């Protein structure tokens, strides 16, 4: 993990919108403060590849959060397909297993301009009850560590995790993996549908590489000021 990241390198704003126009209006409202934007399923299914191209043409970095989860051949083909778009990061579910992850890693290594792959461990909306209901015993932290070790062994060391697992992951995996953390809520903000959350400052202190922030910025009366406040939290000001 690079140690010279600035707060602007560490903040990813989630463009969780149903249209490209709405997403780009938010980008404009941020007035160049943010360098990274997340394109997730909602926006990608509505706007398609052109939204990624547009953001790249404007000079922004794209976190393409598609959470790929299918048979190994299909996921490997998907990795090759999206590589031409210019996204810097791409997610896939660690729960797809070692064969799927290894196929994705092999496809990425053999494809020019492939994004860095991130293995999603356990969604931040899931707590013990949710996890146990799908047949996974133990705590989310147990499962995150299990999946993280498996993903690293399969060639995908970079992860999406909650803030609660950061200390254990850094202890086990060291400083190199990129750990991207959603479920970030500034002090006093609503938790919405997230279960495992943290403030920006706490997540960075615990070892997060990058933070994904959505509603605290996108639903703010002044998104640029909300983003600025989070950048200040990240920097410790």
Protein architecture, described:
The protein is built from twelve helices and eight strands. It has 237 residues and is of the alpha/beta class. An eight-stranded parallel beta barrel has the order 1-2-3-4-5-6-7-8, surrounded by six helices. The radius of gyration is 17 Å and the shape is globular.
Order of helices and strands: HEHEHHEHEHEHHEHEHEHH
Q: What is the highest CATH level, the class?
A: Alpha Beta
- What coarse outline follows from CA principal-axis ratios? globular
Q: CATH homologous superfamily name?
A: Aldolase class I
Number of structurally distinct domains: 1
Topology, number of strands: 8
In DSSP terms (H or I, runs of 4 or more residues), the helix count works out at: 12
Q: Supply the helix-strand structural class.
A: alpha/beta
Radius of gyration, in angstroms, nearest whole number:
17 Å
**Uncertain residue ranges:** none
- Termini gap: 23 Å
Major β-sheet profile? 8 strands, parallel, barrel
Work out the strand percent: 15-25%
């Amino acid at each position: 993990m690079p140690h010279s990241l600035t707060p602007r390198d560490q903040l990813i704003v989630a463009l969780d919108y149903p249209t490209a126009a709405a997403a780009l209006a938010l980008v404009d409202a941020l007035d160049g403060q943010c360098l990274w934007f997340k394109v997730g399923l909602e926006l990608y299914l509505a706007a398609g590849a052109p939204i990624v191209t547009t953001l790249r043409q404007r000079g922004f970095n794209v976190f393409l959060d598609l959470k790929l989860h299918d048979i190994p051949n299909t996921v490997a083909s998907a990795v090759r397909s999206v590589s031409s778009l210019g996204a810097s990061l791409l997610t896939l579910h660690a729960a797809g297993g070692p064969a799927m992850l290894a196929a994705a890693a092999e496809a990425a290594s053999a494809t020019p301009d492939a994004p860095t792959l991130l293995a999603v461990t356990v969604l931040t909306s899931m707590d013990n009850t949710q996890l146990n209901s799908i047949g996974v015993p133990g705590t989310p932290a147990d499962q995150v560590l299990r999946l993280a070790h498996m993903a690293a062994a399969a060639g995908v060391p970079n992860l999406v995790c909650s803030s609660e697992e950061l200390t254990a992951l850094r202890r086990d995996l060291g400083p190199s993996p990129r750990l991207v953390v959603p479920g970030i809520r500034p002090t006093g903000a609503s938790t919405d549908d997230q279960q495992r959350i943290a403030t920006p400052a706490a997540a960075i202190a615990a070892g997060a590489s990058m933070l994904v922030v959505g509603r605290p910025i996108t639903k703010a009366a002044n998104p640029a000021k909300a983003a600025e406040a989070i950048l200040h939290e990240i920097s410790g000001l």
